[in-house]
Write a structure and sequence with these properties.
The complex is a heterodimer of chains A (about 100) and B (about 180). Chain A is built from 3 helices and no strands. Chain A has about 100 residues and is mainly α. Chain A is elongated. In chain A, helix 1 runs antiparallel to helix 2 and helix 2 runs antiparallel to helix 3. Chain B is globular, with a radius of gyration of 21 Å. With about 180 residues, chain B is mainly α. Helices cover about 75% and strands about 0% of the residues of chain B. In chain B, helix 2 packs antiparallel against helix 3 and helix 3 packs antiparallel against helix 4. Chain B is built from 7 helices and no strands. The chains are: A mainly alpha (about 100), B mainly alpha (about 180). The interface between A and B is large, with 74 and 89 residues.
């Protein structure tokens, strides 16, 4: 298999996620798109990890970093959804265009 | 990678077919995630993308990460998203308030396409037709050895961060 197969798949998913973040107005769907972005990065990390592992069998940094990304993503979803819930409770809406309190 | 790489690649026809079948399914599902009008359906399409990624990890012989992906993402995070959808407004049918106006969407699509053009050029320039050669199985024991020796400090930092995030989420979402 080519290394580029996996890297291009990651790039496609990343760009779809970026489109989702820019095109969606609902905060929960923006968080879903951010998950797409994080997962595309994970594909790259594991692919590079497999590439390194073939030359240096003791080196598993790619997989370990992918696990860290999964853990951070779990934390991010927890805090993000809590924030979304609080915004919804205060404003009865999770339209991110209306959340402009901190706009300069 | 030379003639040996080509030989290994010739033996990987089944893996290549599996890769492309799963990849096409993942890309279609990902497009559905960002375009579908029903929030619950978007979360369920995301399950297909995440499952496809776990399958790609299996193709890369990274079994532990694949299992973790299924457990953490499909098992926990998607359920969390469904909770979030149901606790906020919960429109179970189609909803019209999900997308920005067409103009903003076109700008987003343009940015995404340009980003892909740049990344695609960089990737093609950097790796061209480099082969994986032989993908060795990366055993769970090796992963744990790596985490608990080389990456012990980052592991502990991540555990503290998870605790902080959980407490923060509870404090934020608590009704007082």
């Amino acid at each position: 298999m080519l290394v580029n197969q996996f890297l291009f798949l990651g790039a496609v998913l990343f760009c779809i996620g970026v489109y989702g973040v820019l095109a969606r107005r609902n905060a929960v769907l923006v968080l879903l798109s951010i998950e797409l972005i994080l997962n595309s990065v994970n594909i790259n990390l594991v692919a590079f990890g497999a590439l390194w592992h073939a030359t240096d069998p003791a080196n598993l940094s790619g997989q370990v970093f992918a696990l860290f990304v999964i853990a951070i993503a779990a934390a991010e979803v927890g805090v993000g959804l809590a924030i979304v819930l609080m915004i919804y409770r205060n404003r009865r809406s999770i339209d991110i265009d209306e959340v402009d309190l901190m706009k300069g | 990678m030379g003639s040996q790489g080509m030989l290994v690649a010739d033996l990987l026809v089944a893996q290549n077919i599996a890769f492309y079948v799963i990849a096409v399914g993942m890309v279609v599902s990902a497009v559905k995630v960002v375009t579908v009008k029903n929030m619950v359906h978007a979360a369920l399409w995301l399950v297909l993308v995440l499952g496809g990624i776990a399958a790609q990890f299996i193709l890369l012989a990274a079994e532990f990460v694949a299992i973790t992906q299924v457990l953490v993402y499909i098992g926990a995070i998607v359920v969390l998203f469904l909770f979030g959808i149901m606790l906020t407004r919960a429109p179970m049918g189609r909803s019209t308030q999900l997308d920005n106006p067409a103009q903003a969407r076109a700008v987003g699509a343009g940015i995404a396409v340009m980003l892909f053009a740049v990344m695609g050029f960089a990737l093609w320039d950097g790796f061209q037709d480099r082969q994986f050669g032989q993908i060795l199985v990366q055993r769970t024991a090796q992963v744990s050895d790596s985490i608990f020796s080389t990456y012990l400090l980052p592991f502990e930092v991540v555990s503290v961060l998870l605790l902080a995030a959980l407490i923060g989420a509870i404090v934020l979402a608590r009704r007082d």
